[in-house]
Amino acid sequence: MKTNDGIIGSHFYMVNGIDSTNRELLENTEKYEHGSVLCAQKQSSGRGRHKREWKSEKGGLYFSVLLKDIKNINDIYPFVLLSALAVIRSISFFVTHGIAIKWPNDIYINHRKVCGILAESNSQGNKHHLVIGLGVNVNNSVAHLEGLRHPAVSLKECRDEEVDILHLLDKIVNEMNVLYKDFKTGKFQDYLCELNRLLYSKDQEVEIQTPRGLRRIIPLGFTPEAKLLCLENKKEIELFMGEF
Ligand code: BTN
Hints:
Largest sheet: 7 strands, mixed
Bound molecules: biotin
Structural class: alpha+beta
Number of strands: 11
Shape: globular
Number of helices: 5
Strand content: 25-35%
């Protein structure tokens, strides 16, 4: 375990293998401190959104962050969006073009998915805990993921050379810390322009996966509440991340 002086990553745990870093933090909140980061070299049952599996072979980056004792889970979702921004800022060091956030918080490089984020919560009485799990395709092969509805890509493929995973992890955690401090002091709106510049398929029709199936929307922009303003069947609606 090593520590840093921010909140995210104040306690750092690294394991060779685990079933799921999200599951471990979520089921053992009393064992881990607020801000803990748990990273695994591989996962045997990595969890994706919509109960899908997240293939987690060695070479990828798989980690989860625990945020404890949150009053209202819905209030913390803007930070989940900022976590996507932390990943983008960090991978921009390795890849410069075509990076975007597809609602709710997948990260794409030139229309191929490089990172997925799964936020899960757990409540004990009026205590709520949130785990933000991030999976980034770094040096792992994504060839076996080709059959996916949305093709995957790794940073190694984009760069034609391996990326130092721990260096990337360090960058993301540092960015998350900077953004967390700003988020906690009410500065989410300061990031709206940057987030909107990064919005995938802005003003163009796109399919998104929801718990109730596929929807065709035209994303217009993120709102100050971290909702997605979009057009669906020519009507303006707002989508909220907590519903996904
Ligand atoms: C998605 O479906 O796009 C979200 C994928 C999230 C995967 C990460 S890997 C680390 C953490 N642990 C898990 O079991 N899942 C998340």
